[in-house]
Amino acid sequence: MISRYARPEMASIWEAQTRFKIWFEIEAHAADALAELGVIPKEAAKAVWAKARDVTFDVARIDEIERETKHDVIAFLTHLADAGRNVRPWSSRATPRTGGSRIRSWR
C-alpha cells in the first residue's frame, strides 16, 4: 500500500502486525471448535483468547524463521512457541528443528 494515498486506518489493515493478529484469532476460533468437540479443554480455548487481547508479534523474527522454513504459517507458529506464548498447547506442529511433529500437551 502506498502510504501517501492511504488513510492510516486503511494502511494499518495491510501491516504485518494486523495479519499476525488475524492469524492468532483464527487459532483462537480453532481452539473454540476443538473445545466444543471435546478435543481440548474449554479452559485451553479461553486461555488462547485471553492471550490474544494485547499480543504483539516480533515481525523481524517471524521473517527470519520464514526464510529458514520457507513457510509463513510454520514461521508464525514457531514464533509463538518460541516466544513462550503457549498459544496452541494441545497441538502438534511440524518444525524444521525436529523434522517432524512435536506434540504439546495441555499443562
Can you give me a brief rundown of this structure?
This protein is mostly helical and 107 residues long. Helices cover 56% and strands 6% of the residues.
Describe the protein in words.
This protein is mainly α and 107 residues long. The chain has one domain (17-103): Fumarase/aspartase (N-terminal domain) (Fumarase C, Chain B, domain 1), CATH 1.10.275.10. Helices cover 56% and strands 6% of the residues. It has helices at 8-13, 16-36, 42-52, 59-69, 72-82; strands spanning 92-94, 101-103. The protein has a two-stranded antiparallel ribbon with strand order 1-2. Strand 1 (92-94) and strand 2 form a beta hairpin. Helix 2 (16-36) runs antiparallel to helix 3 and helix 4 packs across helix 5. The longest helix has 21 residues, at 16-36.
First CA to last CA: what distance?
A: 42 Å
CATH fold-type name:
Fumarase C, Chain B, domain 1
What class would the helix/strand composition place it in? mainly alpha
Q: What is the residue-mean pLDDT, rounded to a whole number?
A: 79
Radius of gyration of CA atoms, rounded to a whole number: 15 Å
Strand content: 5-15%
The CATH architecture category equals Orthogonal Bundle
Largest sheet: 2 strands, antiparallel
Task: Name the assembly state.
Answer: single chain
List the helices and strands in order: HHHHHEE
Poorly predicted ranges: 92-107
Q: Work out the number of β strands.
A: 2
Instruction: Indicate the CATH class.
Output: Mainly Alpha
Task: Work out the count of structural domains.
Answer: 1
